[in-house]
Specification:
The chain is mostly helical. It has helices spanning 22-47, 51-79, 84-102, 104-110, 115-137, 142-165, 173-192, 201-228, 237-258, 269-300, 308-329, 338-356, 360-381.
Length: 382
């Protein structure tokens, strides 16, 4: 073999001390850019009074951003060998992703993918090449890898046909968009049935934790923007209260997620798919909370077309979603009793506060109480 080029052999799913690589962390920076752009677009839309109209666009784009990360992350967990060709193909995938990310802000307004589709095609070509390399080097996983490559190619052809045949204003646009994304979601499900790939449980736990930190980091950016208003002469009590409350909430969400080191406590493929796919609720809720906090800030400084109660709903509802997501992917599989369903009850409480338009500080206080009770219950069960 040429120097720096090795067969793309499967990794050991029980490999000790498996950690994220530098190229994986580099890939995450693309996600930071894309999520920041789509969250900022929604933030401005909420403050301008048409957040509801942009919410569907936000969700449609967010799942695509998340899916790009998912495709690469699960592949890397199984087949990353770090050789020169692997790095080059990964950089190609990243190049396509950054072209797509560059258009996210514009797409969120118009849903016209235009040049972003080119980025998506480049990205998928890279992923197909990676899967074909894995197929060539691993006879035991050949059918699975080829199934992934074919599935990704078919989905990409559907996206191209969709773009060419369906204008954004078409009544069928969102329906077809969702249908093609269902095809995307089915590719791993059907491919893994050909033979499960050797993904590494602890590696994926770390990778998902890193992406969650990115989402919570977007919230911290919103909180920092609130504090930056002090330098502009804004010392409104509502702004100070919202900034402090936002900080309390994001710290508590961080604690609720990371108080469990075993986010996925089994190697069952069925559970892994629920956990892996279900995280979209947690991730999207984090990004939505960041956008909602931005809207709360705009109301506090008088730069908004909506009132404080409306802005609070946009900030508190995602907290309910975050708690529900954690319950759905993790808590309901724990031991019975209050602990298994406390976060579900907490999500109901947060949803009620959001519906009533309660101030964000009330949600912060309620969330701290939920986290404290969750900690006490966890300690009691040992």
């Amino acid at each position: 073999m040429p120097r720096g080029l090795r067969p793309l052999l499967a990794r050991d799913p029980k490999e000790a001390h498996r950690a994220a690589t530098q190229i994986e962390l580099f890939f995450d920076l693309v996600i930071v850019i894309a999520v920041a752009a789509v969250a900022l677009s929604l933030h401005h839309g909420i403050s301008a009074g048409h957040g509801a109209g942009l919410l569907v666009n936000f969700l449609a784009l967010f799942v695509v951003i998340w899916w790009a990360w998912m495709n690469f992350t699960w592949f890397a967990s199984s087949f990353d060998n770090g050789d020169a060709l692997y790095i080059l193909l990964t950089l190609g995938v990243m190049s396509g992703a950054i072209i797509f990310a560059g258009g996210v802000g514009s797409i969120a307004e118009s849903m016209d993918f235009s040049f972003a589709l080119v980025g998506w095609v480049i990205m998928r070509i890279g992923m197909i090449a990676l899967w074909l390399r894995a197929a060539a080097a691993n006879p035991g996983y050949r059918r699975t890898a080829v199934s992934y490559a074919v599935g990704i190619a078919v989905a990409q052809v559907l996206w191209c046909l969709f773009y060419l045949a369906t204008p954004p204003g078409s009544p069928w646009f969102l329906t077809l968009y969702a249908a093609i994304f269902v095809v995307e979601l089915l590719v791993p499900v059907l491919s893994e049935r050909q033979g499960a790939t050797p993904w590494h449980r602890h590696h994926l736990i770390e990778r998902y934790g890193s992406l969650n930190l990115i989402m919570l980091g977007e919230v911290l950016v919103s909180v920092a923007l609130m504090f930056s208003q002090f330098y502009e002469g804004h010392f409104e009590p509502a702004l100070i209260g919202a900034a402090v409350s936002g900080l309390v909430i994001v710290f508590t969400l961080w604690a609720l997620y990371f108080m469990e080191t075993e986010q996925l406590d089994t190697s069952s493929l069925r559970r892994a798919l629920v956990w892996g796919y279900g995280h979209i609720i947690v991730f999207a809720s984090g990004a939505l909370f960041a956008a909602g906090l931005g809207a709360v800030m705009d109301v506090a400084i008088g730069h908004s077309e909506i009132d404080a109660a409306q802005a609070a709903r946009w900030a508190v509802a995602p907290v309910a979603g975050y708690l529900f997501g954690l319950w759905f992917i993790r808590e309901r599989f724990r031991s019975g009793g209050l602990r298994a369903h406390l976060l579900l009850l907490g999500s109901v409480v947060m949803a009620g506060l959001a519906a009533s338009g309660a101030p964000i500080w009330v949600a912060a206080a309620g969330l701290v109480a939920i986290a404290a009770l969750r900690g006490i219950e966890g300690a009691r069960r040992g």
